[in-house]
Design a protein that fits this description.
Pfam families: E1-E2_ATPase, HMA, Hydrolase
Keywords: ATP-binding, Copper, Copper transport, Ion transport, Membrane, Metal-binding, Nucleotide-binding, Repeat, Translocase, Transmembrane, Transmembrane helix, Transport
Number of helices: 34
Oligomer: single chain
Structural class: alpha+beta
Strand content: 15-25%
EC number: 7.2.2.8
Main location: membrane
Enzyme class: translocase
């Protein structure tokens, strides 16, 4: 018998799984509960406070989920167990108890090392300042990827961020920042270590002396759970990385203020060190640079283009200063110099950094173009100043106006790029600024209320949520009842009822009652933080189509430089050898100057930025829009695959159906009270973890309305037969509950009446459970799992979209076919094991289909991974959500259509961006090179070419921003969207 491993995670929970983790609305409330006496001691007895202890077991002898359920059930009953959650796919058993309990239920358990306690990789995020095009991001990415200890590095031009997976034993995040800076760009740490929480405190009275800093650092390091302390004396800032299970920010403040005889005062560091402030600072820098550039450039433009046509002013401008050097030329020289070397310094630095690492970027083109114009103008005016008969012909306005227009373009670009990440900003803004912390006495009564900064909340704090306030932290209700609007996080439109034991999500809004919640996940562990991380990671991920831009960027700038030089040379030689009439040359210049203007125009009109921004900006906006609609898309790869999907494989239970089976009919073949019948059946089924068993137990509770958690008769010799049912002795009666094949195996006669009822139930898409007492068939229980609202309409719309739908389920063929017929699916695979689902997906892929898999359970994970696009229902298991490429947070089936439609719209926008960016360069460069000049005398002055280049990048970003107006297909608005409340 093969050895199997299970994972049992220790998390808070009550004996009934339905009392924890169920976010569905409840039909009615009991009377308002009160804190029981000895509330805190009860919580401690259950192990809800204090550090968690875990052990990892290898469990030998399990063959199926029923075996795992037996182990879980036995472990849950032990005192001190918070909860044991079975996860067969992870092949681990973590629990807080001894192996004898597992062995008592008939399996062999061996203690093994817990490999999951310590992560071997961290994820570091760094803001990178100074990148201008795809060439820059590729250079940084290659440099980071080459660093020893770096497992994976991704650099996104649109977000100007790097996400690096690294081994902390080999390299530190400081060395990663140094690696970024070595490539010539500025690196600023955003976050490091996904498994750690970090808090920043401002400490008043912190002196720069080594002793005071060491005193604080040693005091903090002595606290349990503190992993790293970093002190910045200049900002009086202390950054602490810690384990939220063991300690929290209030403890740090208390320790700091009690250190050094009360000389120190600590508080949360003021907001402003994050990415948004960096983005705002960048916007301000470009704005200031453009304004100063405009101050100098406007007079240059006026003296060059306007004053020359105004009598009086023309004479002043033409006044000689030295030899042939005029006042106008001197003014232009003086005013354009600070623009070229002070305001335009960023282009020199950018060029130097790029060329030093063997690459060429947009800065190289700008620097070459403006320098050519500026230094030729300097040569021209110096020649005029030293000659009595040679007039100057300067291009100072070209270099100054070029830099001004490019700065204006960059300002508009960063302004627009900031709006592409508004989804993340909105998500982060959901967290409330303040929270009401409750202090309880030993009997659980409220002693004191205190308003604190929500960032100071620690695990196991009790928080009061008043009507209209945002929930300050993830947790569960310990007192009160209310309705909570979770639409901002899950997309669920209807307020969700909450009472004692129900979970709440930080950032959601409490509507009409007072709730007391116990914080379970704070800081980086919260659901909101995880969603933000998921969206951030999605916006970092490159779509495969972006490889086109990356490949082009490698040779784009060098090619443009060659074309530019060739253009100048061609026009210069044509002028030198009279290849065109002299009448073509404008009166204000000679053939060399005409050729130079064509060359500069070619150099500055080429725009690698537009190509580099075409994909990432659209992906950013698309994933952000998806997140706001409850569809979390994990990056460009998922988007690109989703728009090609032409076949969708649906799991049945929990995907097409509600995933909550209910008893709909009972037929008895002998006279006995229905209550007695269900007493016996529930006593046997309460030991099983199967969803159908839970449905029977829940139905049996209706006969015990006076009891919230009824006690069932003891079941002896309980035995679960995988895929068939259960056997047990209850009240000295032998009970066999299961399907027809189990009855036949046990040699129990199934009468014709029962056969007919089974056929009838299967025809109605129901599952028939047979019950035998003392080896005589006494009844049939019909169980139904209701279809999700509008499931049939969704399948119909997918057919209209030319997408094939297939249903794969582990359920029996009769029920599977009935469900498929009801929703309109033609192809059905029933009685499929997890590996069979994945195999079926691979078969479809081999047939040429681009396959999406929609599922919600652990057993769907192999298929979700195998599919081109895995879509997990948001209410499903964490493993399914982890394995999926797209998460449907609202658990609405119609969001499958939303996800595919959004991906199609996003990729049509990416294609439009590429058509514009490539078309702009393909058309713009020849025009700048003067192909129209011989026939039309039309030429593009360099400053207009520069303005066109700046406009190109802005237009691509704005084109992507139009995705923010995305509306899901109108046909979905006509569907009746609503939950099914099962009484």
């Amino acid at each position: 018998m093969a050895a199997k491993l299970i994972s049992l995670a220790c998390i808070r929970g009550e004996s009934s799984s339905s009392s924890y983790g169920n976010l569905s609305p409840r039909p009615h409330y009991p009377s308002m509960p009160k804190y029981p006496k000895g509330f805190l001691s009860l919580e401690q007895e259950k192990g809800m406070d204090g550090p968690e202890s875990k052990a990892l077991f290898s469990v030998v002898g399990m063959t199926c989920a029923a075996c795992a359920g037996s182990v879980e059930k036995a472990v849950k009953r032990l005192p001190g167990i918070r909860e044991a959650v079975v996860d067969v796919m992870n092949n681990r058993a973590q629990t807080e108890t001894i192996r004898e309990t597992i062995e008592d239920v008939g399996f062999q358990a061996t203690l093994v090392e817990d490999e999951t306690n310590e992560k071997s990789t961290y994820v570091c995020r760094i803001q990178i300042k100074g990148m201008t095009c795809t060439s820059c991001s590729t250079t940084v990415e290659s440099a980071l990827q080459a660093v020893p200890g770096v497992l994976k590095a991704r650099v996104a031009l649109a977000t100007e961020e790097a996400e690096i997976q690294y081994d902390p034993k080999v390299i530190s995040y400081n060395q990663l920042i140094e690696a970024v800076q070595d490539t010539g760009f500025e690196g600023i740490l955003i976050s490091t270590g996904e498994d750690r929480s970090t808090i920043h405190l401002k400490v008043e009275g912190l002196r720069t002396s080594t002793n005071s800093m060491r005193l604080i650092e040693n005091s903090l390091q002595a606290l349990p759970g503190v992993q790293e302390v970093d002190i910045d004396p200049e900002l009086s800032k202390v950054s602490i990385s810690y384990k939220p299970d063991l300690t929290g920010p209030r403890n740090f403040i208390e320790v700091i203020e009690s250190t050094g005889s009360g000389h120190f005062k600590a508080m949360i560091f003021p907001q402003g060190g994050g990415r948004e402030s960096l983005r705002e600072e960048e916007i301000k820098q470009y704005y200031r640079s453009f304004l100063w550039s405009a101050v100098f450039t406007i007079p240059v433009f006026l003296t060059s283009m306007v004053f020359m046509y105004i009598p009086g002013l023309k004479d002043v401008m033409d006044t000689k200063v030295v030899n042939m050097l005029t006042v106008g030329e001197l003014i232009r020289w003086v005013l354009s110099t600070p623009v070229q070397f002070i305001i335009g310094r960023r282009f020199y630095t950018g060029s130097y950094k790029a060329l030093r690492h063997g690459s060429a970027n947009m800065d190289v083109l700008i620097a070459l173009g403006t320098n050519a114009a500026y230094f030729y103008s300097v040569y021209s005016v110096l020649r005029a100043a030293t000659s009595s008969n040679v007039k100057s012909m300067d291009f100072f306005e070209t270099s100054a106006m070029l830099i001004s227009f490019i700065l204006l373009g960059k300002y508009l670009e960063v302004l627009a790029k900031g709006k592409t990440s508004e989804a993340i900003a909105k998500l982060m803004d959901l967290s409330p600024d303040a929270a009401i912390l409750l202090t309880l006495d030993s009997e659980g009564n409220v002693e004191r209320e205190e308003e604190i900064d929500s960032r100071l909340i620690q695990k196991n704090d009790v928080i009061k949520i008043i009507p209209g306030a945002k929930v300050a932290s993830d947790g569960y209700v310990i007192w009160g009842q209310s309705h909570v609007n979770e639409s901002m996080v899950t997309g669920e439109a209807r307020p969700v009822a909450k009472r004692k034991g129900d979970t709440v999500i930080g950032g959601t809004v409490n509507e009409n009652g007072v709730l007391h919640i116990k914080a379970t996940r704070v800081g980086s562990e919260s659901a909101l933080a995880q969603i933000v991380r998921l969206v951030e990671s999605a916006q970092m991920a490159k779509a495969p189509v972006q490889k086109v831009a990356d490949r082009i960027s490698k040779f784009f700038v060098p090619l443009v430089i060659v074309v530019s030089f060739s253009t100048w040379l061609a026009w210069f030689l044509a002028g030198k050898f009279h290849g065109y009439p002299k009448s073509w040359i404008p009166s204000s210049m000679d053939s060399f100057e005409l050729a130079l203007q064509f060359g500069i125009s070619v150099m500055v009109i080429a725009c690698p930025c537009a190509l580099g921004l075409a994909t990432p900006t659209a992906v950013m906006v698309g994933t952000g829009v998806g997140a706001s609609k409850g569809v979390l898309i994990k990056g460009g790869q998922a988007l690109e695959s989703a728009y090609k999907v032409n076949c969708i494989v649906f799991d049945k239970t929990g995907t097409l159906t509600m995933g909550k089976p209910v008893v709909v009919n009972t037929r008895l073949f002998r006279t006995m009270a229905l209550q007695e019948f269900y007493e016996l059946v529930a006593a046997a089924e309460v030991n099983s973890e199967h969803p159908l068993a839970k449905a029977i137990v829940e139905y049996a509770k209706k006969f015990r309305e006076d009891e919230e958690n009824p006690t069932w008769p003891e079941a002896q010799d309980f035995n679960s037969i995988t895929g068939h049912g259960v056997k047990a002795i209850v009240r000295n009666k032998e009970l066999i509950v299961g399907n027809k094949s189990l009855m036949l195996e046990e040699n129990i006669v199934v009468p014709v009446d029962a056969e007919e009822i089974l056929l009838e139930t299967e025809g109605l898409a129901q599952t028939g459970i047979l019950v035998a007492i003392d080896r005589k068939l006494v009844g049939v229980v019909a169980i139904s799992d209701p279809l999700k609202p509008s499931a049939a309409e969704v399948i119909s719309i997918l057919k209209y979209m030319k997408i094939r739908s297939i249903m794969v389920t582990g359920d029996n063929w009769g029920t599977a076919k009935s469900i498929a017929k009801e929703v309109g699916i033609d192809t059905v695979i029933a009685e499929a094991k997890p590996e069979h689902k994945a195999e079926r997906v691979k078969e479809l892929q081999a047939s040429g289909y681009i396959v999406a898999m929609v599922g919600d359970g652990i057993n769907d994970s192999p298929a979700l991974v195998a599919a081109d696009v895995g879509m997990a229902i948001g209410a499903g298991t964490d493993i399914a959500i982890e394995a999926a490429d797209i998460v449907l947070m609202k658990s609405y089936l119609e969001d499958v259509i939303t996800a595919i439609d959004l991906s199609r719209k996003t990729f049509s926008r990416i294609r439009l961006n590429y058509i514009w960016a490539l078309g702009y360069n393909i058309i713009g460069i020849p025009i700048a090179a003067g192909v129209l000049f011989p026939s039309t005398r039309f030429r593009l002055p360099p400053w207009i070419a520069g303005a066109a280049m700046a406009a190109s990048s802005v237009s691509v970003v704005c084109c992507s921003l139009l995705l923010k107006n995305y509306r899901r297909p109108k046909v979905l608005d006509n569907l009746e969207i609503g939950g099914v409340i099962v009484e």
